[in-house]
Amino acid sequence: MVFKLERIERIREYEIIYIMKPDLTDDEQKNLVKKIEDIIAENKGEVLKTTSMGKRKLFHETKGQLRGSFVHSIFLGNNKLVPELERKLRIDENVIRYQTIKLVDLVADVEARKEFYNSPKFEETAAVIAKPIKEVKDDYDKFRPRGV
After folding, report:
1. What domains sit in the chain, N to C, each tagged with a CATH number?
2. Secondary structure of the chain as H, E, C letters
């Protein structure tokens, strides 16, 4: 008797931060974000949350740019999605840099993940995490114990 094993495709959760050229217009930025979301959708992925983080100064000059527009996306997909996404980002001249990170290796409940990222609780947590460093330091100075 021969058993045939079926290969189950894992759904993983990833996040990507990519930096676009700062001189792009708002429409060009929206088109690039839409293009990236379409790449994810074409490869059987699903975008859970996309957040524009605005223009920021880069730590060092990258591809002739000192500033960039940052975008953060969280998405679901299989292991074939990320290499294809990164290949297309590497080709695009409007993307300065990108980094993809695997957050969860096996997502069991896709609907629960969608619900979490669209909940007010996530928005509150993200707002605290995304505070500029100066504000965090000011908060620390207010509550710092004396003599420290």
Report:
1. 12-108 (3.30.70.60)
2. CCCCCCCCCCCEEEEEEEEECCCCCHHHHHHHHHHHHHHHHHCCCEEEEEEEEEEEEEEEEECCEEEEEEEEEEEEECCCHHHHHHHHHHHCCCEEEEEEEEEECCCCCHHHHHHHHCCHHHHHHHHHHCCCHHHHHHHHHHHCCCCC
